[in-house]
TrEMBL record:
<dbReference type="Pfam" id="PF02994">
    <property type="entry name" value="Transposase_22"/>
</dbReference>
<dbReference type="InterPro" id="IPR042566">
    <property type="entry name" value="L1_C"/>
</dbReference>
<dbReference type="InterPro" id="IPR035300">
    <property type="entry name" value="L1_dsRBD"/>
</dbReference>
<dbReference type="InterPro" id="IPR043636">
    <property type="entry name" value="L1_RRM_dom"/>
</dbReference>
<feature type="domain" description="L1 transposable element dsRBD-like">
    <location>
        <begin position="125"/>
        <end position="186"/>
    </location>
</feature>
<dbReference type="InterPro" id="IPR004244">
    <property type="entry name" value="Transposase_22"/>
</dbReference>
<dbReference type="Pfam" id="PF17490">
    <property type="entry name" value="Tnp_22_dsRBD"/>
</dbReference>
<feature type="domain" description="L1 transposable element RRM">
    <location>
        <begin position="26"/>
        <end position="121"/>
    </location>
</feature>
<protein>
    <recommendedName>
        <fullName>L1 transposable element RRM domain-containing protein</fullName>
    </recommendedName>
</protein>
Length: 189
């Protein structure tokens, strides 16, 4: 019993730490796929150029200001060149929100003819939790249940005309009350 309480507390602390880390990164965007040969330019001017190139309407917007930008360190083989991500911190959350919305609407983003991608900058644990829910998302999507993965890693979908939202453990409990849903997700959970 004491060991179980300690494990429960440890899980709660991990969740709080992840939420704190994500809230610190709230104003950040991660840009992937930008070529390494652009090192002579500062990361900030590079990001401004990417924004102007992909979102001409937002490039002139005074509300969208970059506070700082930096490249991530090389993580894999230091001898083999690989593209590093760029982390961009905006002065306001609204600036990040508008850029992300424009990126979703645009779909395919490029910089100097190369495909790039914008993503929210979240901690590794949150990305891992989202990745674990991807197979659930795919099954629900095939059944046309309009699934979504919400922050930080909750699964939301439409069932019986209403939208339900669950973390993984509560989804398992809810499945026991819905035999059809249980049969649909039996393999993935």
């Amino acid at each position: 019993s004491r060991k179980k309480k300690r494990e429960t507390k440890a899980k709660e602390y991990d969740i709080r730490l992840r939420e704190l880390s994500d809230s610190l990164k709230r104003d950040n965007i991660r840009i992937t796929g930008v070529p390494e040969d652009e090192r002579e330019k500062g990361a900030e001017s590079l990001c401004e150029q990417i924004i102007v190139e992909n979102f001409p309407n937002l490039g002139k917007d005074t509300d969208i200001k970059i506070q700082e930008a930096q490249r991530t360190p090389i993580r894999f083989n230091k001898n083999q060149p690989s593209t590093r991500h760029i982390i961009v911190k905006f002065t306001k959350y609204s600036g990040k929100k508008r850029i992300m919305k424009a990126a979703r609407e645009e779909g395919s983003l490029t910089y100097k003819g190369r495909q790039i991608r914008f993503a929210a900058d979240l901690c590794t644990e949150t990305w891992q939790a989202r990745k674990e829910r991807q197979d659930i998302f795919n099954v629900l999507n095939q059944k046309n249940m309009q699934p979504r993965i919400l922050y930080p890693a909750r699964v939301s979908f439409k069932i019986g005309g209403e939208i339900k939202s669950f973390p993984r453990q509560k989804l398992k409990k809810f499945m026991t009350t819905k035999p059809a849903l249980h049969e649909t997700l039996r393999v993935t959970l």
